[in-house]
Design brief:
CATH class of the largest domain: Alpha Beta
Largest sheet: 4 strands, parallel
Number of strands: 7
Shape: globular
Strand order of the largest sheet: 5-4-6-7
Number of helices: 11
CATH architecture of the largest domain: 3-Layer(aba) Sandwich
Order of helices and strands: EHHEHHEHHEHHEHHEEH
Radius of gyration: 17 Å
Helix content: 40-55%
Oligomer: single chain
Structural class: alpha/beta
C-alpha cells in the first residue's frame, strides 16, 4: 500500500491544483484511477493572511502545525504544503512536526539541478520573493538566483492576491509575467521558478520566455513518488 499523503492547505486554488495532480497522475504508477490516500486540512485563508500581514511567522507556523496534527490523526504518513510563502515558518516548527515534511523549495531545486539549470529567476508573492526560502535551497546546491525589481514584486503580489487566489485569470496578468520573465532572462537566468502555487494556472513552458519550474506540480509529483516508493 502506498503511504498516505497529508496536504497542509493554505489558498484554495494552489491546494486544489496540487491535489488534482496527485490524483490524476497516480494512475501512471497504480493503474487506472489509482492514487495514494490523500487527506487535506486547511485553516481559513484569512487566518493565514492576518498573520502574514503583521509579519507574525510564528503564528503562521502554529497554523501549519495544527494542520499536521489533524492530518496525523487522519492517518497521514508525511506532509506537503502547496504554498511557497508559508514555508518561511517551517523552520520554526520543524522540531515539533509529528511526521516528515517535504520542503517545496528543495523539491524544486532538485529538479533544477537535474535539468542542468544554473541561475533561477524567482516569482511569487512579495513575502516569498523577499525571503530566503528559495535562496537558501538554491545556493545550497550551487545555483544562483535573481529576484525581480521591487516594483515588479509589488505588481505580481497584487495579481496573486487580487486575482489568482480568487480564481481570476486575466490575459493582462499573463502578459505582465511574461514581461518580468523576459527581464529575468536578460539578467542571466536560464529558468524561472513559479514560486506561487497559483502562478502555474496562468504560466507554463508554452507561454514563458524561460523554462519553468512548476512548484505546485513538482511537489505533487515528488509526494506521489515518495508515497509509492515507501509503501
Amino acid at each position: 500500500m502506498p503511504q498516505h499523503i497529508g496536504i497542509v492547505g493554505c489558498s484554495a486554488e494552489g491546494a486544489a491544483l496540487c491535489y488534482r495532480t496527485i490524483c490524476q497522475e497516480g494512475e501512471q504508477f497504480l493503474g487506472r484511477y489509482g492514487h495514494p490516500q490523500v487527506s487535506m486540512h486547511t485553516h481559513s485563508f484569512a487566518d493565514y493572511m492576518r498573520a502574514i500581514q503583521r509579519d507574525d511567522w510564528r503564528a503562521v507556523g502554529e497554523l501549519m502545525l495544527s494542520s499536521t496534527e489533524k492530518l496525523t490523526n487522519a492517518g497521514a504518513d508525511f506532509f506537503i504544503c502547496p504554498d511557497n510563502t508559508i514555508h518561511q515558518a517551517l523552520s520554526l516548527i520543524q522540531a515539533r512536526l509529528p511526521r516528515p515534511f517535504l520542503h517545496i523549495a528543495e523539491v524544486v531545486t532538485e529538479d533544477a539541478v537535474r535539468r542542468g539549470f544554473s541561475c533561477i529567476g524567482l516569482l511569487g508573492t512579495r513575502y516569498l520573493v523577499e525571503s530566503e526560502v528559495y535562496p537558501d535551497a538554491l545556493t545550497a546546491r550551487g545555483l544562483k538566483y535573481v529576484r525581480p525589481e521591487p516594483e515588479q514584486r509589488e505588481e505580481i503580489n497584487r495579481i496573486i492576491f487580487d486575482e489568482l487566489v480568487c480564481g481570476v485569470f486575466k490575459p493582462a496578468a499573463i502578459a505582465y509575467h511574461q514581461q518580468v520573465i523576459s527581464r529575468l532572462k536578460a539578467n542571466g537566468c536560464d529558468a524561472v521558478v513559479l514560486g506561487c502555487t497559483e502562478i502555474p494556472l496562468i504560466m507554463n513552458d508554452a507561454n514563458s520566455p524561460l523554462p519553468t519550474l512548476d512548484s505546485t506540480r513538482l511537489l505533487a509529483r515528488s509526494s506521489l513518488k515518495r508515497a509509492i516508493a515507501a509503501g
